[in-house]
Amino acid sequence: MLLKILQLVSSIIVISLSAYGLITRDYQLNFLMIFFLGLFMLILGIKEFQRERSIYGWLLIAVCLFALFVSIQNFIYL
Fold it and tell me: Transmembrane stretches, by residue range (predicted)?
């Protein structure tokens, strides 16, 4: 239940930041969008591990780590 709530909250944050960037053409908050997208992928990876689909779980964890790395890099060089 908690994972479902976190998944919903992170997806709403990602969609709202994406919409803000598209409407205003201000892309300074992209690092936050990528960060929350990484958290969303982490939640999906945990859910896949719970469903005993470990290959997809590891793939989503790897995508999560890459997204968090890109987000941190964008924040540092902002």
Answer: 5-23, 29-46, 58-77
Cα 58 from Cα 51, distance rounded (Å) = 13
β strands within 1-78, DSSP E: none
Q: Which residue range(s) make up the domain with 8?
A: 2-76
Quick one: DSSP state of residue 62?
H
Q: Could you read off the pLDDT tens digit of each residue along the chain, which spans 78 residues?
A: 899 999 999 999 999 999 999 999 988 889 999 999 999 999 999 999 999 999 999 999 999 999 999 999 988 887
The total number of structural domains in the chain stands at 1
Residue 13 CB-density burial (10 A; 0-12 exposed, 13-18 middle, 19+ buried): middle
